[in-house]
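Backbone geometry tokens:
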Amino acid sequence: MQDAYPLHLPKGILDQWLHHLSIEKGLSLATLQAYKRDLMPFLQDPFTLSTLQERLSTLSQAHEWQAITVARKLSALRSFLHFLYQNGLLNEDWAEVWETPHFWRKVPTYLTAEEANALIDKYPLHTRHGPRNRLLLELLYSAGLRVSEACALKVEDIVPEEKMLRIWGKGQKLRWVPYGRSIEAALTAYLPLRQERYRPRSAAAGYLLLSQKGGPLTRVQAFTIVREAARYAGIERPISPHALRHSYATHLLLAGMDLAYLQQLLGHAALTTTQHYLHFMPAELREVILRCHPRAKEAPE
């Protein structure tokens, strides 16, 4: 596939594509609107095949899209790209690349403890947003929060006397997550600066993490911060906020935490979801078993 030139979209091409879908496939107005919504995030004019790939990777990780969501959005994108090819706007059918397995860059399941520590500790605190960004990184790795949970966290959800965070997870399910000295230090560094540097708007006054314009920090902004932190730490492979949550769970499991306790900390509705971590790291678990279990050690000669 060629990626030598950026494509500028002709005016009205989106409406032409939707009209084509309406006539050729007989799609309803609601379906056409859904196709348009799924496609719009990718239409950054001009674009190349590489920028489309990067855009999909960024959005899917930042918004934590499930596989079915990615598949749906890819369906709209592939349809639009094929339409461009049919109308002579592309020399090759870029839609075909989305079925090529090597096109995807697999995000690492988790970081090593050394990488996770470097990603947080090497993030500079002297910058304007340094204390806020360090706190975000701590919440993702040291408390294992989902990126949406970290962005939705309120100041009132912090209980410093108990060193606990009140987390409203998926389905508004409440759980309590303990935190340690690293998050405590990050809170101490950030909270005195929060009002002065971010001037929270009235609608966002309760949110802990704020954007430069005074609104709540978004998931896309959080993804950018994590990617920036990875660069500071010298980690070249792509890292997402969810990779830090994976790292939190993996490191606790390898340290011997009971799976049921980990389920509560992560806010998983079913233990089977937490059990997936057992499949992510068979080699590491084997080492733990050989080191710790009395019946797994080598028999004496």
Notes: The domain at 13-103 is CATH 1.10.150 (DNA polymerase; domain 1).
